[in-house]
Hints:
Layout: H1 7-20, H2 27-37, H3 45-55, H4 60-72, E1 76-79, E2 87-90, E3 98-102, E4 108-111, H5 114-121, E5 136-139, H6 142-150
Parallel strand pairs: 3-5
Antiparallel strand pairs: 1-2, 3-4
Helix pairs in contact: 2-4, 3-4
Bound molecules: zinc ion (2 copies).
Amino acid sequence: MKEDNSYESIKEIFTEYLKKHKHRKTPERYAILERIYSYEGHFNADILYNLMEAEYRVSLATVYNTLELLLECKLIIKHQLGGQFAQYEKTFGNNTHHHLICTNCGKVREFTDKQLRISIQSRKFAHFQTSHYSLYLYGLCHKCKLELKNG
Ligand SMILES: [Zn+2]
Ligand SMILES: [Zn+2]
């Protein structure tokens, strides 16, 4: 797995992508990238917008537009977790974790598993280099399980 997770190398990936596709290299876009990479966990466009507002004012349109660009160059991933809003998280420098998703209320919990990590990292695939992975386990959260049983 690729280990160079420094912010400089992340920025370089973005710069290369913007150049190649003839997008403008605006300070707003880099400020958003930097904010995302200093944030731990999942976020949606609104959360990001509010975080940005505190330190570097950008429009909601710029947030959405930058999220699209970052998705295209694979610096963030988009989770379709069944909730109302798409959730995003950074691709690199994120501790590998997995997701427990409640199919009833859409609540997401994260977990890590050392055994899984060891077995996936040692697994070699022909003509394929793994960069990252994530598992999604679907089921019912504690609250929903109780509700459904009693309801
Ligand atoms: Zn996650
Ligand atoms: Zn639930």
